[in-house]
């Protein structure tokens, strides 16, 4: 008879997420998760075939947390929302942020796939972006994500001076977004 499932899948993922948040996703093991739960490894193997499947569940939780942070912004400005959510994630989960962004891994591919459609849909809500083709929106998004990612890396690694509080960083993101959109419109007028 299989072992009785003592913990829900969600509880196991939460424990694994906590470990990944403290030590990094690659240091997560079934044994560490079991220890975090105060359990044997059996309940984990009832829910997950191996550590890779559990890591994928943690990645899904990271995507869910990121989507929640994005939805909480809701300023009406998609670039601001995307940037603010990224900065917030980098501040609250710096180790996970570094795992996803600064280390070669397959996890970011999953994350980008999950978030890509969400970000594109979010951009189309902005009246300031009317008239741009899907291709132009993708390029604008790429430019903004490159800038916002760099700023978020600086946040996650504590590389900014104290004068760069969250409000100052938001001002900078807004300014860059305006510059990118204005430059794209100007190029369209020349063509």
Automatic annotation (TrEMBL):
A GO molecular function held by the record: DNA binding
Residue ranges of the annotated DNA-binding region, renumbered to this chain: 29-48
Protein name stated in the entry: TetR/AcrR family transcriptional regulator
Lineage: Bacteria, Bacillati, Bacillota, Bacilli, Bacillales
DNA-binding in keyword set: yes
Keywords, in A-Z order: DNA-binding
Residue ranges of every copy of the HTH tetR-type domain listed in the record: 6-66
Gene3D superfamilies (UniProt xref): Tetracycline Repressor, domain 2
Record InterPro entries: Homeodomain-like_sf, HTH_TetR, Tet_transcr_reg_TetR-rel_C_sf
């Amino acid at each position: 008879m299989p072992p009785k499932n003592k913990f829900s899948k969600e509880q196991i993922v939460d424990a694994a997420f906590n470990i990944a948040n403290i030590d990094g996703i690659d240091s997560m093991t079934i044994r560490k998760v079991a220890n975090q739960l105060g359990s044997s490894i059996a309940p984990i193997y009832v829910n997950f075939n191996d550590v890779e499947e559990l890591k994928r569940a943690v990645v899904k939780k990271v995507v869910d947390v990121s989507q929640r942070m994005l939805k909480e912004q809701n300023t009406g400005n998609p670039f601001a929302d995307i940037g603010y959510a990224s900065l917030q994630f980098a501040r609250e989960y710096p180790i996970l942020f570094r795992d996803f962004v600064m280390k070669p891994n397959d996890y970011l591919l999953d994350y980008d796939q999950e978030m890509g459609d969400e970000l594109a849909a979010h951009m189309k809500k902005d009246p300031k972006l009317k008239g741009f083709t899907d291709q132009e929106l993708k390029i604008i998004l790429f430019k903004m994500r490159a800038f916002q990612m760099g700023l978020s890396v600086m946040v996650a690694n504590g590389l900014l001076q104290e004068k760069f509080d969250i409000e100052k960083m938001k001002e900078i993101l807004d300014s860059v977004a305006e510059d990118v959109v204005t430059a794209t419109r100007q190029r369209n007028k020349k063509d």
